[in-house]
Queue: 2 jobs
Job 1
Amino acid sequence: MTDVTTEVKVTAASDIEVDHEALDRSIHEFAGPNGDYYVKAFHKIHDATSAVPNTFNLWAAVLGPLWSASRAIWGMFWTFLILEIIAWVQIGRGAWGNPGADMVERAERQQARADELLARAADATEKADIDRFTKLAANIQKAADASFGKAAAAQSEALSIMITGLLMLLVFKLAQGFYADRVYEKQYSKWRTDPDSTESGQSRRNMVLGAVLVAAIGPLIVYKFTVNASLAMLDAFPEKEVSALILGEGGGTLFSNLASWMEAQIDAAALAGGDVFDGIVAGVRSVLDALTIALIGSPWPVVMLVICVTAWRAAGPRVAIFTASSLAYIALLGYWDVAMETVALVGAAVLLCVVFGIPLGIWFGKSRRACRAAEPVLDLMQTLPAFVYLIPIIAFFGTGNPPGILATIIFGMPPVIRLTALGMRGVPDSIKEAAVAFGASKWQLLKDVEIPLALPSIMTGVNQTILMCLSMVVIISLIGGGGLGKEILEALQYAAKGPGLLGGFAILFLAMVMDRIVQGAFRREDERI
């Protein structure tokens, strides 16, 4: 029995030794140069029982960001590059800078003003003028003396500023030395799980790149913040000089030439495609007119009743009560017609977004190539400031409600496209394979399997599109759009705080009503499922 136990212990010890050898080889492979040091350091980190650093990397402390760059630890590189630059700025301010330069300039301006007032007092003939100029000169002289005193005090602190910078640099160096091995050990752990996407070893290319970044960033920042009068080229980009170099003298600026060219191209495109743009406007206007007749042309009690019943059936009695209260607020304050016009604008935009957005989302969800091609366009539509949309919209489609709807569509369509594509990609392959195995055609697979399973994501996209379209009602009023946005714009123009807030609350209640109805309808659909 004893021999068996001894044999088991020996076997276990040999297995542990083999594991340690494999780990050491792995660390050597990861670290490359100076691998023995990192083997010991990583073992110390593994065996440590507290979070206190128990290793110190001398080369990381001495080389600083250059060591981080050579080991491809770019987060640590940028962090300590910024911190060390701050320390060097403090050292430069104390060593060769002039901390009180601003106060000296201010004091000199005040002194010149005081001397000017004294000269005017000397030239004055009436006693009242002499007393007034003398008093003003005395007051400004006191301010100048105070500024000179502050400048002298700031200049006397130069040594302490330099010492502070040296202490900061020392602290940052020590921090890099103590934490470098821990950060590198975490990178080693990532490398073991995913060696293809994690850099290992010591790279000369990264070292050179880090040195170039340090040399390009550090000296310029230190120079800019420590020298009293830096080069004008560092303060402002020499746009005129570069334009003259490219276009020649008298050729204008790049901005003026490029702006003129773009304006000419837009005018030519608007003239060439006038019939197409007019047709698009006519189509949008037909949708808007239909909704406007239904909401404004119908008697207001009918419209209010239909909306409240819809809220009740879709989201329950609480949402119906809230909807009725919101509509009562809108009607009592005289916003009924403009609010219904806003609903028509948003409804037309949302309808067009859904009609075009959901099919595009289905296509992008099924085709990775189409999705990758459309991704930059969707990013542009969603991130470009909304005011920028208005420029080409006015150029191609004119002003008024239909062009405003087109601008709203550009801003509101990406969510429904993205979330529809996301829902389509989220349908499990096993379910689709089972449907195909039972003989489902492509149309049946889409209609009966994929769309129902992707419906939660699609409805979330529709909800987001509604809210984003509603957020555009104020902006489209800038190009002649009506509704509550026009009321808010007029309140802004005349700084009418009360009307502006009341109109803003009306928009808020409309948004909340639409959101609650859509979410409630979707929630009830989930409960049925």
Note: Confidence is low (pLDDT under 50) at residues 7-16.
Job 2
Amino acid sequence: MNLEIAGNVQGFKQQDGILTIKTAEAEARVYIYSPTIIRVSISKNFNPDDPSFAVIRQPLADFDFDESSANIDITTPALKLSIQKSPLRFNFFTAAGNSLSEDDARFGTNWQGERVICYRRLFEGERFIGLGEKTGNLDRRSAAYVNWNTDAPNHTPESDPLYKTFPFFIGLHSGLTYGLFLDNTHKSYFDFGASTDEETSWFGADGGDLNYYFFGAQGVAKIIEDYTWLTGRMEMPPLWSLGYQQCRWSYMSADEVLNIAQTFRKKQIPADVVYCDIDYMDDFKIFTWNKKTFPKPKQMLDKLKAMDFKLVTIVDPGIKVEEGYKEYDEGIEQDYFAKYPDGENYTGYVWPGRCHFPDFFREEVREWWGAAFTALTQPGVEGFWNDMNEPAAWGQNIPWIVKFGDKFMPEVRNAYGMQMARATYDGTRKIMGNKRPFVLTRAAYSGTQRYSAVWTGDNTGTDAHMLLGQRLVNSLGITGMSFIGVDIGGFSGNPTPELMVRWNSLGVYTPMFRNHAIQGSKMREPWEWGKNNEQIIKKDIEQRYKLLPYLYSSFYQSTQTGLPVSRTLAIEHSFDGNVFDERFQNEFMFGDAILVTPVESTKLTEDVYLPQGSWYRLSSDKFYEGEQIVNVQAPLTDLPVFVKAGGIIPMQSVVQSTNEKGDGILRIHIWNGREANSFIYYEDDGVSYDYEQGVYYKRVISFNPIEKSLSLSLVEGSFKSRFMQLRFVLHGFDGVKLQEEIVENKNGEIEVKL
């Protein structure tokens, strides 16, 4: 195997907003997308179409550069890219000249066969966060990872790879921040100094271009904002999808599904969603219903609707090989399936047996797939769960010679699940008109946030997986995915009652709150764990519903800035070493104001690190100064949750579903603090896309500690709030008795003296 290292620059030119640089080994192209985003792409054979599944923005039309005998320098208001000529190396600096990231002087970009790798300097004390769904520690330093979307049903807290590919990370050193996104769907590699004597980090892929976007904004939140500007942001989810979701493999009949829903209502445990796993289908054939166990799906859906329940149904990509089956016949007739090079349709075994796999990389196939959802939407299904889309086949090893369109499987495997989610989203949005679909996917690639929510796959009912799940949620949040869930209680295995209680209490603060389990395991519904535990779980689910106004507003923030709902503390406290301590790395912010500490089910006290600021225990209003480690009580009835001083949290009364109006009072909770703070409160109908036309309700709630006042700005948007009255609930304000004061929720400015 030969090694080729990018050598000296032989020539360069700028044309149409692209700086092209030639060496004997390859060609490099440089693009500017914004003052803080620069793209570098290096290849031996560029694709003239320059496709990307992730990026939705175009580069600037032109930019200036300076040339000297040694370098080509590109300077923006925020960044300086210094391109060394002999040999070709790319070094990034702040506008003030501080080094952010540099090519390794010896090896830079190099090739071994088709594999392309970029070696970069490793800075002293440099930390790395991101890469999405990756196990291990919050700080990726001294670890190595592979991106190869994999069905990983028995994964451990150390397994790699898993189901998703998000080749985007953020580097932290010297008080500086930078980000890097390798937009390449081949099997890819990231090594953060795992075995290089603390000298280099490196990243690359088995083939394709070394095509990366460099982000130079200062502050992790700013980098996330830029990354999601580049790759897109989520849209507002349907409000019902933020409620409690009950799932199982499988509820075996319409009667069982209805009984589950009826039991929630009888016991007055709030819930919005029940799922149908693979057994609702006729012989596991996608877009069919089992005529014996689900004989009248519309009748079942109508009954669920009458109880304010939504149904989510699973869809897998494998199309059963069976003449007379509509999707198979159409796929064969239209030539829509992945193929061997000789034109034969690829066949793999999944749940239905022998299956073909749709080629979701072709627009006409995506349209065909999307149109088929009428079999589910006509009876009334509004949620669509995309599974087994790594793509998975028994044996886990789809031949590399299988082609999707003009690409072989290894070139695009990592994007297959994303394209399936895209087809599902586009199709159901078209069918459902002005109603928002809920799409969930297991496999994903960067940019999937535009189409779908994700969950972390087949976890296990252990404390270790509960804590790992939270790290995965936090890490996925860095990479643009805000709508994320885990299988509460663990998909496989049998959790203890204590773990089930603890995990549900953590689910309150998980963006998607879904309980799910494998066939043959203990039933996981809240009433299956004894009367006392049922009451604890019920109380926690009620807390989730109280928090929905705050949570929905936090999702609105994600649509505007890309900032996730569940946030590792490293976003706001990037250079606080305690944040990366393995004892505290699972802690996270839930929205702007709430800090959550996951605790193992066997522990009744916990050491908690409270970062800079002042904090209140949510359950007791006990006050703590930040930047210290505190040992707190952590009974199963009271997960350690804290509110930042100055925090503003709008809440509602307990309701049984998101469709229930409640008492019409929005309770605005404010915790006293020394610093001014504000919160953007957002409402819309929770169902339609009317908000895109200005039919929403938005106002800024501000706390002024100097003037001791709380103010609400003039309402923006034409939507009428569902809350007719406002109640201000004060915490930490000694002697103030404002809790009982209720005011009319008018659209004009409102100010309350505290």
Note: The chain has a mean pLDDT of 97.
